[in-house]
Every structure is written in C-alpha cells, then in structure tokens.
C-alpha cells in the first residue's frame, strides 16, 4: 500500500452514533479536511484495506467489530504501523484507557470534554500526525538514496571497499565478494589484508600508508596470481582533519596488459615480415601533403580537385616531392635495382613518372576522402630506366590514421602478367572477329553448362545480347524451350557419356518467334581430365523444315482427298445397293398393312377366334395391337434407311465450289447429328440438342460446314470415358446478332494447355495410334476461315471441352 503524504491529510472516523459522527465531521470540515465516515467496525476495516489513512478516530463501542479489536486489526494491515490512532470514548476509568493503549492506540479523546478542548486536542493530533509523516518521508528518502548508491556500487565492474585506517572492512560491493568468493557479512568487521596473499597484502598496506600519510589520493599497480590491478586509494578527511575511513577502487587491467604485450609482439612480427618478405614493401609519410590536398578540396571540391591536378602537372609534381619514404625492405631494393635501402629512400620520387599519375591520383583521392585503404595498379620506373607494372595496396597504419604519417605500401610485380593479358586479348579479339562474322550460331559453354560465348548470329536470331546470357546455364534461359536436348539431365548425359551426337531443338526468340536449330557439338581444351569448354554450332533450319512439312502436308492432303473420292464412290455404290432392298420393303410394307386390315375384319367375324388363338398359346387381343405396330416400324425404318442413304450420297457428292449457298445452320447441325447419332448413342446416355427456334441463315457451302460439325462431334464422342458423361449441342446467334454460333460441349478428358496451343497445327493429333492423321482440325480451321468465321476451343483437363464455331449471318 502506498502512503500519501500530501497536504490533504487522509482521515478515517468510525462512530456508530449519528450525532457524534456529524459533529466530528463538522469539526474536520471547518479545519479544511474531508474525512471518510464509517458507522461500524467492518466498513472501517475495509476502508483502511483499500486506502491508507494517516489519522484514524475509533469509537470503542462499534457494532460488528469493537473499537479496540479494530485498532489491533488496523495495526496488522499494510501501513497500519504508520498511522495515528485516536480512541474516541465516553469511558474515563484508567482500566479502559490502558486497554486502548495496549490495543495500539496512540491517544484517546473523552467525549465529555468541552468543545474548545475537543478542537484543541484535534489540532494537536493533526500536528502530531503531520510531524510523523514528515519524519517518515525523510526516512524513506534517505533509504531510497542509500539503496540507489548501493545498487550503483554493486553494479560496478570495479572492486569498491571502505575500510578504516587499520584495514577493517566497513563496507564492500558485490564484485569484491565475488573475487574473494565470500559473503559481505563475512567481510564486515574483518581485516581486509587477511583475505589476500602475503606478498600482495604487503604492497597494498604500503600504498594505504602512503595515502594516509599524505592525506591525498594514491594510485598503485600490482598483480595477484592471475590478474593485474590498478588501485585508486581515497582517504576521507573529516572536518577535524582526521581520517577514519578510506575508499579503495580496484580495476582489473589484465586485458589491457595482455593487449599491450600483444601489440609489442605484433610490432616485432611486423618488422620481421617487413624485412624478410619477398614482395616490395615501403613505409611512406604523407603528412606533409595533407594541407595541400585539403586546400585543393576546398577550392575545387573533393570530386573536381583530381581534374585540376591532371590539368596542372606542376602542382602534381610539387605535391609528389613532399612525400617522404621512411623505410623499404630488401625486396624493394632488389626488384627496383637500387644500390641499397638508403639510396632507395633518397631517390624514391625518381621512380614515379607520367605513367604513374593515375595510380598516384587514386591515392590522393583516398586521402581526400579520409579513407585508410586503397588498391590498384601503377606503373613505376626502375633505377635502370625500365618500367614495371605493379599491383599495389596502400594501407594507413593504425597509429597514423589522423595525419597519414605512416602508410604501408605493398606491391606485386605483374609486368609478365600484363604482357600475357595483352597477348591473350589480341588472340581473343582475333577469335571474336571469326566467331561474330560466322553466319552460323556458335555458343560456347564451360563444363558445367554456363555460357561463356554467344556469337553475333545467336544474338541477332534470339534478340538477346551476350551480357544477357553470360555465366547462365543455357537450359535456364527463356529461349531454350524444354526438350530432350535442352535440359540439365541431357547436359549431364553429355558429360558422363562423352557422346557428342548432333541434335535438333526449338529455340524461342525475344519476340516469341520460334526457330528450329540443328546443332553439332565438339569439345575444346582439357583440365583435370575434363574438357574446358563445349562448343555448340547451330544452323537455323526452320524454313527448310517448314518447306519439308508443307510438302508432306500437301502429300497427306492429296492422299486424304483421294480417300474421300474413293469413299464417295464407295458410298454411292453402297447407297445404290441398299436402295434396291429398301425399295422392296417400302413397296411391300404398305400392302402388308392393307392385307392385315382385311384379315382383321374376317377374323373378328369368327366368334371362336379367341378360343382358337388361346388353344395355340397366343393372345388374340395382344396380336391385334402388336402386328400393326410391327408393320409401322418396318415402314418407318425403311424411310429412315432411305433418308440416311440420301444424306450419305449428298455428303459424298461434296459440291465444294459453291460458297454462296443460303444455308440454315440448324439444318447443317441436324443433318450432321443424324449421320453420327449412332456413335453418339454408343458413347453416352446423356446427350441434348437445342436448336435456335428461328432460322440462322449463313452464306457458304452446306457440305463443308457439315464436315466441320461431324469432325467436332466425333472428337467429342472419343473424348468421353464414361457413358454418364454428357454431350450437348446448341445453336444461337451471338449478342451482336452478327454471327451464328454452334456450341458443342462435352464432359470428356479435356485438352491440356500446351495441346490447346497446337490443336490447329497440321499433323498434330493425340490419336495417331488409332489412325488419327492430325489434319481434321487444321482442315476445319481452313474451312471456317473460308466462310469468314472463327473456331475456338476452351478446355479444363479432366472437366471437359467447349468448341464454339461462329459463322457470319447472311445479311
């Protein structure tokens, strides 16, 4: 419970007499207070539990809990020991008053005293309470300050201990307890030096004596078994100039000592490596040019001052002359042909020529940017006036990062490497000229399939530049469509089998044009028993293969046309042969029907006809109904045969030249359905045909349109895998009333997205094993385009296919 010590003194009054409670409240209100009023002991106890009250006035005779019991309870509650309890009673005997004091009351107030005395006693009580609260708050502040100081000292990574001048421990922080592996209580009152090794204790006693004798702080260093310490000893001089207490701060400096030793060892190693390494090493002092570079940067800017130095060589060489060489190693002397290190140091500037300017300007720019590291190439002159190409690294030493007074320059002679690079560059340019001017595609990959060369013919054909494809495996590029020869597995096969067979693959250009490429392969170079590179040489045979396919397609079309002619001839002959027996049936069936009617009238006149038929096991009543039905079936079937034969003859005749016939699409679809109804019934039990109620007249050729519908219907039937799957045929005009639409939908296996792209390509078929030629949809698309229409497919694999044929309506 928090205790409120503000000027608004919290007061609780518990009195069961309403008059006394009213009077007490009035007295406090006149003094400027708003007391909490309770008429029983229980509510007063609950009020104190929820809030601290500095002054509590209790009547002895309270209902629920009497005043003395309530006083005891309050003293046991949080904050109860800090409040002032006044017992308000009508008793005057000493026994009752002693009981109140024993219960924990601070004072009592008799109800029989005069009002003026009552007010005086209340004022005294309030003043007493306020005095107690002020003292309590001061004690809290002191304890809080002590707690904070203790927390800071205990959190310190240093050892902090307070001792008297004899070394007796008065206080110690947690770090000292941890180091000595003991508790604070075990240290207090004990001599600090008894916890230390004898040799350590002796030195620290001497340091303590020095601080006590001079009455000034004293710094002292020592070492125990494993650690180094720095001690700061502070004697506390009292106003009477006496010293009773000493505070000692001890800092662990072991890490600092170790780093100092490591620095010395590192410096020794550096000096040894500097002197005996085989690469040239220089130490130079650039501190004398710092002001010059800063002035140039201020005048021309950090980016432009380099251009100024390029255009003002006299300034450049004046700055160069101010750079001092501090030391060089023996490798520098040997490689640059100097007499000795001293001669080299004095003549270093002679090694820098106009060819060295780019490298030196790179260093000047690094200084201007306040950086400490740069590397690059520089051309330097030897003392025999020959030139060296050097790869340098320029590093500011840690001790000179502000003034650049000590910079280490290491160099590698790359003169031979540069000459080799020059020769290789010339050879590469020669090879590139050959590759880029070849009219064949040349692609070179490394042994992992990454492209390293992509000649100009490849770039022009594919639309990708060489930088677009370099260091990318060719099967990961968008132009190499997935095929047996354009996959990682195929490349792994080449590597493992070492077989370099010729192959063909389709590549797609940036504009989505596809090219058929004929490739040959060879290897080039050897490393670790493997070829370094594989060279692919390709020829674009797209047009050649297209011409071959066109010739093959024309041959197939001629063969198909020849088949159709033969089929037409055969159909005409078969139709003629079928017509003869069909004519007999059509002629005799009506005569049979007429004869049956005559027989029926004669038989019905016989009264025993029923008994005669029943004696033979035949129901005369059923025969009267069945025989006429059978005769009508024969007549209807003969008509059906005649209709089918007529339609077959019309279909076989194929008058393909007349494209201006007025054709009702509904009639075309109905005729087509009649021709393939048998196949439809064998494929599904669920089929529907919905024709637009009005004529949908188009201009075109009846037989050609019929050919398309039959082709699509047969494809729909062959896509079904179950008799419950549906086929539906609908005819209707489109929304603009410009096209007649024939929609044929099935619930078959559907067409994949890849197959949809090539469904109209000649020779594409998924039924080649069952005799498909791949010409049906290609021919159908040609017929539709001749009629100015469109044909398209939409499909979901496993859900079915919808074909929509749109023909312009005749105006």
What does this structure look like?
The protein is α+β, with helices and mostly antiparallel strands and 811 residues long. It has 26 helices and 27 strands. A five-stranded parallel beta sheet has the order 2-1-3-4-5, with helices on both faces. Strands 7-6-10-9-8 form a five-stranded antiparallel beta sheet, sandwiched between helices. A hairpin with a 5-residue loop joins strand 6 (159-163) and strand 7. Helix 2 packs parallel to helix 3 (67-76). It is flat, with a radius of gyration of 58 Å.
Provide a quick synopsis of the model.
The chain is α+β, with helices and mostly antiparallel strands and 811 residues long. It is built from 26 helices and 27 strands. The strands form 6 sheets. The protein has a 5-stranded parallel sheet, with helices on both faces.
Which characteristics define this entry?
811 residues; alpha+beta; 5-stranded antiparallel sheet; 26 helices; 22% strand
Record the SSE blueprint.
Elements: E1 11-14, H1 18-30, E2 36-38, H2 41-50, E3 55-59, H3 67-76, E4 84-89, H4 94-102, E5 107-110, H5 115-155, E6 159-163, E7 169-172, H6 174-180, H7 184-187, H8 198-214, E8 218-223, E9 228-237, E10 243-252, H9 254-276, E11 281-285, H10 290-300, H11 305-311, H12 313-320, E12 324-328, H13 330-336, H14 341-346, H15 357-368, E13 373-381, E14 387-396, E15 407-413, H16 415-437, E16 441-446, E17 451-454, H17 456-462, H18 466-469, H19 488-497, E18 503-508, E19 514-527, E20 530-540, H20 542-604, H21 609-615, H22 620-653, E21 661-664, H23 665-683, E22 686-690, E23 697-700, H24 702-719, E24 726-733, E25 739-746, H25 753-757, H26 776-786, E26 790-796, E27 800-808
Helix pairs in contact: 2-3, 20-22, 23-24, 24-26
